[in-house]
Amino acid sequence: MSDPETVFSPLALTGPLPFLPLVQGDVDYDTASRQQPGLLDRLLDQEGTGVILVRGEKVAVPRGKGALAGRTGASIRLATLPAAYLRGPLAGSTGQFEPPCYYLGTADRQAWLALDLDLACAGRAVQDPLRDLAQAADQRFDWLALREYAPHGRPRQVGLATCAVALSVWHGRQVFCPRCGAPVHPCQAGWAQICQGRASGDRHTLFPRIEPAVIMAVVDSRDRLLLQHNRQWAPDFRSVTAGFVEAGENLEHAVRRETLEEVGLNLGEMRYLGSQPWPFPSSLMVAFRARSLNTDIRVDGQETDDANWFTREEFGAALASDRLRIPQAASVARYMIAQWYGSEL
Ligand SMILES: [Zn+2]
């Protein structure tokens, strides 16, 4: 028996935020295998390899299941295909470049791939078998955005879908090398790109750039929560404070700077709550709870046009009377608000 104190889930969050929708699953990323030549072809030939389908921010779910998104308690699984089904359509695409698949890792000794239909169809002729496959998949499955699907999925499948979407969005947006402008191709089983700008042997490898963003539940000395309104949001929508980390800045500075800029509050002590990827297109949301040293809110008027302190009673009453809407079920903001409120929302 191992000591429970020493056993940590690789996805462990802090006590205050024990669960976040996009931080799930038990998949072994198996990073050591990614650089093996011919890995994707071998996995496609291997019996038992599972395949999920991705198109940018969207994943395929069985026909008819897409309508369940947003319904409380509804469970939705991913559409999965046996790898053998792809051998025919992918036959012409192997060779010099890797097939348009990402190796997501293994779970219970089963290997998982994501077939990226956007990547598969890019630059292909209308008659190409991969285009036919993509067209069939569009008709045969429902397609849900990751943030619609995640609150309804099983943990392992949500983990697979999150990685697949993060890679698909990245490959879809970065088709030229940001260093030299030459075309790029996926490599390392989808987790990197190789720039074609130089002779082979001298080519640089590119990795996804993740953009950290801080998000903070700001409370005052009476434990009231600050909720604010962005000018671009619907009038009744409120959320916690958030912003991108600037160049050369650490997370703590970003939390203090953004809060001061947006709502004029100086923060005292802050505590790390947890983090989750937000690949729309490439963020990592890093959540904090922070105590404000002052209560006189001054909104910047540019990005933020309103902000208020809420007691739990005020918050509960506003929510119950439909005067207040808060972030969606897949967002870290919703869990931060629920953690402060003391019950699920
Ligand atoms: Zn380059």
TrEMBL record:
The lineage of its organism: Bacteria, Bacillati, Actinomycetota, Actinomycetes, Bifidobacteriales. PANTHER family: NAD-CAPPED RNA HYDROLASE NUDT12 (PTHR42904:SF6), NUDIX HYDROLASE, NUDC SUBFAMILY (PTHR42904). GO terms for biological process: NAD+ catabolic process; NADP+ catabolic process. It comes from Bifidobacterium apousia. One of its GO terms (cellular component) is cytosol. Belongs to the Nudix hydrolase family. NudC subfamily. Its cofactor is Zn(2+); Mg(2+). GO terms for molecular function: metal ion binding; NADH pyrophosphatase activity; RNA NAD-cap (NMN-forming) hydrolase activity. This is NAD(+) diphosphatase. Its EC number is 3.6.1.22. It is an enzyme of class 3 (hydrolase). It holds the Pfam family NUDIX. It comes from the Bacteria. Residues 208-332 form the Nudix hydrolase domain. It catalyses: a 5'-end NAD(+)-phospho-ribonucleoside in mRNA + H2O = a 5'-end phospho-adenosine-phospho-ribonucleoside in mRNA + beta-nicotinamide D-ribonucleotide + 2 H(+). The keyword Zinc does not apply. SUPFAM superfamilies: Nudix. Keywords: Hydrolase, Magnesium, Metal-binding, NAD. The keyword Metal-binding applies.
